Amino acid sequence: MNKEQTITGVIRGTGACVPERILDNKEIAGFVDTSDEWIRERTGVRRRRIAEKETTVSMACEAGRQAVEEAGISPDEIDMILVATGSPDQIFPCTACRVQEALGADGAVGFDLNAACSGFLFAYNTAQAYIASGIYRTVLVIGSESISRLVDWTDRGTCILFGDGAGAVLLQAAEGKTYRPAAHSDGSGGAALTGPGVRNRIRSIDKDGREAKTEYITMNGKDVFQFAVRKVPQVIQEVLKENELSVEDIDWFVLHQANARIVDAVARRLHIGMEKFPMNLQDYGNTSSASIPILLHELNRNGVLKKGQKLVLAGFGAGLSWGASILEWDIKG
Questions:
Q1: Model confidence at 198: pLDDT above 70
Q2: Is the dihedral of CA 315, 316, 318, 321 positive or negative?
Q3: How many whole angstroms separate alpha carbon 182 and alpha carbon 314?
Q4: Among 43, 60, 283, 288, fewest CB within 10 Å belongs to which?
């Protein structure tokens, strides 16, 4: 499908919120068998933020408020609120409805979307579909996670990776180029990365006959790494081909911030310099669905992004799920 001049969702504002509590690698080394050097070499993470007084809702509200404020609109102009989260404070009412109330967006419909670390990208695509169809014109898209509450802090393979936070973008309908996204799911690989269920005391036996911990995140790190370094370059090439673009046409590749080694491997497979792959995971760890919008907000706030630049957003995670989207930046740097 060729890019067309039509109605698309343009980012008019961004926002982010991270907890006050900083947990660095040296502190983690005090309660699990690891070290700062070991964690940095294998993940790139130096520190992460941990929600103590903050909640998934409170961080989503603050990130959303910032995005609305930068866009210069009133909350009652928002038509829809989408919140991507795999760690809601409660199953219902959903996080989006709590955000709607807090922001005073009385006319907005809201719902949550869970696609784990791919969640923000999938929510962004959902918002674009509503805008392109003409159903809604102004959509607030948020990724918010209190993922540390799902972490087994005795499991070195997962506790070193994750952090908490929220990021948001405010999309408004405008005439512009529409880019077709690419997204995929593979349920057969779901066992590689799992989280707790509603009843987190359900007894589960793993393939070796041992009782598995179902109240925490579990991950096969090797499988997830191999999945990501194979599928992410493929889906980026797919979305570029679909929209008749090349890697040279893209100014920034904004990837889910899971692991520095994954980002490096993707860049090498695409034959692109790392200077086009901004990262902030060293400060926040893997914030799941919040990672892409937090990074977008930092790039926006620091004046890195320039009007007219093309960005590729790429998410990947549990499901298994992965995808990529292209956008043109429209906020003056």
A1: no
A2: positive
A3: 9
A4: 283
Amino acid at the residue 63: A
Q: Which of 254, 229, 307 is nearest to 124 (CA)?
A: 254
Summarised one tens digit per residue, pLDDT across range 152-185 is 999 999 999 999 999 999 999 999 999 999 999 9
Question: What was the pLDDT predicted at 332?
Answer: 81
**Angstrom distances, CA of residue 255 to CA of 38, 49, 238, 289, 314:** 23, 19, 15, 11, 5
* Confidence tier at 212 by pLDDT (50, 70, 90): low
If you count them, how many residues does the chain have?
Answer: 333
Cα–Cα distance for residue pair 316/288, rounded to 1 Å: 9
Contact of 68 with 140, CB cutoff 8 Å: yes
- One-letter identity of residue 325: S
Comparison of pLDDT for 20 and 203, the residue scoring more: 20
DSSP secondary structure letters along 274-301: GGGS---HHHH-B-GGGHHHHHHHHHHH
* pLDDT, tens digit (0-9, with 9 covering 90-100), for 119-151: 999 999 999 999 999 999 999 999 999 999 999
- Least confident range from 102-111, 140-149, 324-333: namely 324-333
- CA 280 – CA 44 distance, rounded (Å): 10
* Active site amino acids: 117, 256, 286
Q: How far apart are CA 69 and CA 105, in angstroms?
A: 13
Q: Give Cβ neighbours of residue 2 (< 8 Å, ≥ 6 apart).
A: 243, 244
